[in-house]
From TrEMBL:
Protein name: Sporulation integral membrane protein YlbJ
Keyword Transmembrane in record: yes
Keyword Transmembrane applies: yes
Annotated keywords: Membrane, Transmembrane, Transmembrane helix
This protein's encoding gene: ylbJ
Protein species of origin: Cytobacillus spartinae
Amino acid sequence: MLRSKLKTIILASSVTIMAISLVSFPQESVDASIRGLTMWWEIVFPSLLPFFIVSEMLIGFGVVKFIGVLLEPLMRPLFRVPGVGGFVWAMGMASGQPAGAKLTARLRQEGQLTKVEAERLVSFTNSSNPLFIFGAVSVGFFHNAKLGILLAVAHYLGNVTVGLLMRFYGKNLSRTKEPTRKFSIRAAFSELHRTRVNDKRPIGKLLGDAVMSSIQTLLMIGGFIILFSVINKLLFHLHITGFLGEAVKYVLNTFHLSEALSIPFISGLFEITLGSQLISQVKEASLMNQVIITSFILAFSGFSIQAQVASILAQTDINFKPFFFGRIIQGFSASIYAFLLWEPLYARTNNGEQPTNAIPVTFFGEGAWLSDTFSLMTKLGPPITIFALCLYILLYSRRIYQSK
């Protein structure tokens, strides 16, 4: 009872302080809101919407079940999750956060994952997509596309590390031995057909449901992005960020990292985009120090994305704690990988040359096309978002009219 009352007091006090801060810093709050909104409708919404819709369609048509049967011999021994986890992992890396959490929750609702399997899966299938790592962070902030290779390798190796460690999670809760199917295309096609037949929805209804569900999720994500953008700004003006930064300095000193990275690090714990940008602007720190801290906050995901994941998981019985624990593991492991791979993946290949935006042809084709794609998305993002929201309003109005 005492713990519950204490929690109530803390939550009420926090919201009250935030309300007072909004009144005390109106212009700063509006600027932060606009920044969050701009990020959402230029980048997040148009980049995630196609993946969310296609994922819903793939689940409905049984393709995910088909992929799950084929990947079962790989995913079960390595990560102790069903083969469908391979689909979630791939889509999570391609589309970015919080796609892995949404797909995991969706498959849990479909009954394709047990509670423990879902908690293992969600802990390592949420990651930043390559477009964000190369286009926004490496080229946009650091003006050095070659750093993208190092950041991406460290980031995704961190994902694998979390997956391998979390395979031991819930081991005592599994009373029966988890079966591993053999590779069978015939069995995969059978599961695909069975899943499609069992879903009685017509194609039009399935597509409409996919659009509605995806846009509803993205609206929720947009709200969290704006909220945490404002919170981050208010914490700075209330000098809370600076206070926490003083404590972080001791930790950074322990690992022989620059103290100047303390405040950007705190900002990155709340929102990875702002944190990465601030880290890239710290001239007092070496580039290696900047990369190590950036790797940590990219892997930790920030409280903004974690709140989005918590909201998605709240619709199921999936526990949020394994996901949060996984973010801490990935944060440290990605930082360690960035440190270990600095010499072979960046310092040795650069040979003391000045940073450049050109990405090696052998990796990503001619020129910095990821940077160009990112710039194009910022231009096309707003009209795509407006069109999708108008479509959502039409579909929603139609359903209300038909239900009467």
